[in-house]
Amino acid sequence: MLRSIALLAFLCHVVACSSSAAQAPFVNALVPQPRELQVSADPGLSFSQTTSVFLQAAASGPLSAATSRFIVRLQSTTGIELTTPLVPNHDAASIVIHVADASASQPTLGMDESYSLNVDSHRATIEANTIFGAYHGMETLLQLLQSNGSGWFLPPVHIVDTPRFPWRGLLLDPSRHFLPVPVLLRTLDAMAAVKMNVLHLHLTDFQGFRIESRVFPRLTADGSDGEFYTQDQMRAVVAYAAARGIRIVPEFDMPGHSMSWMAGYPQLASAPGPFHAEHSYHIFAAAMDPTRESTYEFLDRFFEEMTHIFPDQYVHIGGDETNGVAWKSNPRIAAYMKAHGYAKPSELQAEFSRRVQRILNRHGRKMIGWDEALSPDLLSGFVVQNRRGATSFAAAATQNRQTIYSQPYYLDHHSSSAEIYAAKLPTGQGMLGGEACMWGEEVNAQTIDSRVWPRTIAFAERMWSPPQVSDVEDMYRRLRIESLRLDAMGLEHLSNPQRLLRHISRSLSSPELETLAATLQPEDFIVRLQRQKPTRDTPLVGLVDAVVFDPPFEHEFDRTVDAFLHSTDDAAINQAASTLRRDFQSWVNTGPALDQLTESNPELKKVTERRHELIALGHLGLEELEARQHHEHLSAPDVAMAEQLLQRAATPDEGYVDFIVLQPLEQLLRAVR
Amino acid sequence: MLRSIALLAFLCHVVACSSSAAQAPFVNALVPQPRELQVSADPGLSFSQTTSVFLQAAASGPLSAATSRFIVRLQSTTGIELTTPLVPNHDAASIVIHVADASASQPTLGMDESYSLNVDSHRATIEANTIFGAYHGMETLLQLLQSNGSGWFLPPVHIVDTPRFPWRGLLLDPSRHFLPVPVLLRTLDAMAAVKMNVLHLHLTDFQGFRIESRVFPRLTADGSDGEFYTQDQMRAVVAYAAARGIRIVPEFDMPGHSMSWMAGYPQLASAPGPFHAEHSYHIFAAAMDPTRESTYEFLDRFFEEMTHIFPDQYVHIGGDETNGVAWKSNPRIAAYMKAHGYAKPSELQAEFSRRVQRILNRHGRKMIGWDEALSPDLLSGFVVQNRRGATSFAAAATQNRQTIYSQPYYLDHHSSSAEIYAAKLPTGQGMLGGEACMWGEEVNAQTIDSRVWPRTIAFAERMWSPPQVSDVEDMYRRLRIESLRLDAMGLEHLSNPQRLLRHISRSLSSPELETLAATLQPEDFIVRLQRQKPTRDTPLVGLVDAVVFDPPFEHEFDRTVDAFLHSTDDAAINQAASTLRRDFQSWVNTGPALDQLTESNPELKKVTERRHELIALGHLGLEELEARQHHEHLSAPDVAMAEQLLQRAATPDEGYVDFIVLQPLEQLLRAVR
């Protein structure tokens, strides 16, 4: 008798029975968590083809457009095409959006971003004072959508929400590697999804000047290698951002980090030049000349032009890492310093900053600068972007300056989402919020998403949600869900690493290479910078570019080892042991396939050490496991050997990749030594 | 004794020994295959950091830009950063590009696309008469790059190459689903990689008017739902294409398929309206009024404007599917037809086409139309695009018309790469080449790449290579390699299906869902259209949108079953049996995981039948396998049951997906019945 017969018989009885089971329990996937959330006993709102979406009064162009996009996303999430989405149907399920005053469409610092969201079995209602609050409400509603055996529904929640901080930003650096417009747009989509509201663009640096100036066309003609945003493009980006409640804050780094300006306009410089946009990543001495009136006249005209592209009230002037060498070695500037009694370059920089601030203020803009630009001589309204931590914050507070906090949020470093989430924030009046900073030396348009996301989700929650929301496990649970949502929205953070692994393995899939990659992360920014000495032209197509900081396996493995060693529940211990055994065995098993793959593969040759170490670590893990389960201890020579292996696996390799599994393996070793 | 000790000892002896082994044998991954290819005994050219690339004389702006892009791609492919790439270094390995006459930069029909490529141990030399030939030579060189234990090298080849047909096109249809500029750009990159040279854009149809007209701004204002290419954008696309040797041929479909024109300009129509861009996909009767002078005056001004955007000599006016209903039901037009002795609407259409052709000719353009536009009354220079096959071709040949052949190349149908490759081409003077056509009803910007690629690679080879190049197995081998190269270049044909599977499974990976997806393809265009009745707003996020036509598993499974049944080599039979057993078992094993995944997943519920059938098919396969290996036969009732299963699995399902494994299973069944 064929086994398939039974199955076929079964098939003949498959009935399209849409069970009308009770709603599944509410799964909280919201990130950031709202300020207040209550769940009622109501069955919630079934979402179906006939659900209608409508704006109650106070509609505006931007709000209507946002509602149309919202409808498309409701459809993409659920796969359900709404029949007549915008026709209010009071008999059917409805999503109602009510905005008290929809007149403001340009986001500003301190705008009212609050909203409430109520769901019962008839309707879901988003209420907000501004369209910005309504945008957030729509994002929350999309995160609420869930499905059970009967279909899609919105759980019966009552949410009242407002952000903890008004400045929740992300810095991108198109100067080092240009980021074409589509990268900015998809980043804005992702930021909006987690309620961030500032995209800070580091538009100029040694390596390139990335925004078109029509007043000074040689800025891009000579300083951009042809890669820059036209004014039309940037206006479109600003509009796209505003339509999602996000401000674009431009940064024009000065007086240092400004060599790309001098390529076309050497008269700005403190030294004769010639200059060009640099492809290497040194910190060059070249700095603007703060002693010439012509410098300020130039900047005055330049900033005037930029105000027509960037409507935001804030302009960032950088101000970091000006070492003063160019000033001291120019006799005219040295004489100026002496004449003004400036003992240190920082005093000359303070004069420069003060004058630039006056120019900006005259154009209706407030000035932001990094820590180094802070000076008591600046006028009020100056905002400090903090990259040096608590001491700098205190110094700013002494001067009554507001601060954007960035020190723990440098995404080119290998901080995990947990570390970003748990970073201690200074308290005080001046705290505006923070920015996650993605410097561009080691990322390009292809790899940047996988460096920024999903870690920035943890940052976004820290900036929005009350400080009491701090459960790391729950954050990771929700971050994983949101990461998949961003993927579906078109972010490349999951796709591109896989694409690179296909490129490296030259095959549709290589499970063994994926196993290796899952245990690795890139070297920390600064270590790679010093060892590899990459330039703007270094291809970013190696395993180091495919692996990510804080890969999913890191937290998972930590937890499993923790459960194995510390759980008091035998079942949990056995479960953990079985997971670990499977993992360790998969490391050991990578050998033959990766040996073969590496044979004619120069890229994989670079990680030969890591490959071999992974196999050895797998054996070590299996032995640690066995010893622990049999309540045995490793011999002293074996322990020494294991320690040597762990030490070796922690040293830098030719592929610029680090293991993320060493600490748990050390914990295991301590338990059986 | 720790097993890891041995490994650790081994690690300590890992030496970075760059073996100087002889070059690996040449692996021919070229697609399309060149006209002539010889491989010499020379060791070939080692590619390293010091390899230089330079243009020999006759440099031009476009050629220099192309060379710079070529260098970036050499670096991305190999991961090697060239130190001073553009400085000729006669001591080191060099890639030399020589173009006899680099003055022409705008591609035209019949341009000289030939090139030669010679590699010895000192240099690789590309020689071409035009920059278009040089572009092809660079693509060939990139496909030649390969690596062995010592690093990257170019094998010692002598290639002389020229295309079989001068028209090697792809039709995209941004009217049904708008395709933003980045989609066009990445498509052009892929086309250039396989030496295609025409991108045909179907810019207007019932569902939308997609190119900005400043003369008639209401065309997009009222007929595009806000989705269209600005003139600046389209000029950039045309320039991007030209820089890759690709012509952009615009299509403005008329007199039918033109409702989006009438939304803003109802005076063009044969009926009073009102009209709007349609969201459904019916073929509407609305057609332009060919009896009014004002229609031709409008078209005259419109085409005049378009010549400033589209430099190509050819303009496509569609001309398909005008059913004449709108004409016959308008008394004025009916009277006109009677007065002119037109018995059938096609006669009126012929007059219309003739007049439009005169307008186009006056603007220096030649006219293309689909089969239905063919008429003996047209002037010479008219080109037919064939969508009806050999009979239509013969009709055109009778009128001495040139033909672009498309009938076998409709990518919305489920033709496999093998079928596309093997399609019989008509012979005759008028054969210009062909176009693969990707109609837009059921694809959007996210899914389109996976419908177009990799199948279009097979088409590209058919259009370029000599007809003797026809080995299907070898085509598939090279197509798989090229598919990965296109993936690395940024095409989404591999990424997006995986992204959709993550969206559907809501997890980073679901091996069981991947197993199911590997056995499925979308329903053929027309079947899905009639059953699902999708509109422009139907979300394309289901399993039907994640699976692809001619998935890799299809050909692989066919071959394995074939080897199992027909090989004369016992080892090959056993190998095939073991592969099949693993495959069938993997189908059976999908049960529990997919049951669980489906529980609260409305999208997966749609493929419940296919899921259950796959399990039954797996059981059937295992039994067929067992019977065959034991030289047994299935009982009559078992055969009947199996046939019933295969039949059932071949009927349309709720998810709009078809199995691609049924034919081989039937073959197996025939062998054991």
From TrEMBL, chains A, B:
Gene3D superfamilies (UniProt xref): Chitobiase/beta-hexosaminidase domain 2-like, Glycosidases
BP GO annotations: carbohydrate metabolic process; ganglioside catabolic process; glycosaminoglycan metabolic process
GO molecular function, one term: beta-N-acetylhexosaminidase activity
Leader sequence residues: 1-21
UniProt keyword annotations, A-Z: Glycoprotein, Glycosidase, Hydrolase, Signal
Annotated ranges, domain Glycoside hydrolase family 20 catalytic: 165-466
Positions annotated as active site in the UniProt record: E321
Superkingdom of the organism of origin: Bacteria
Location of the Beta-hexosaminidase eukaryotic type N-terminal domain: 52-144
UniProt xrefs under InterPro entries: Beta_hexosaminidase_sua/sub, GH, Glyco_hydro_20_cat, Hex-like_dom2, HEX_eukaryotic_N
GO cellular component, one term: membrane
Family to which this protein belongs: Belongs to the glycosyl hydrolase 20 family.
Protein name, as recorded: Glycoside hydrolase, family 20, catalytic core
Taxonomy of the source species: Bacteria, Pseudomonadati, Acidobacteriota, Terriglobia, Terriglobales
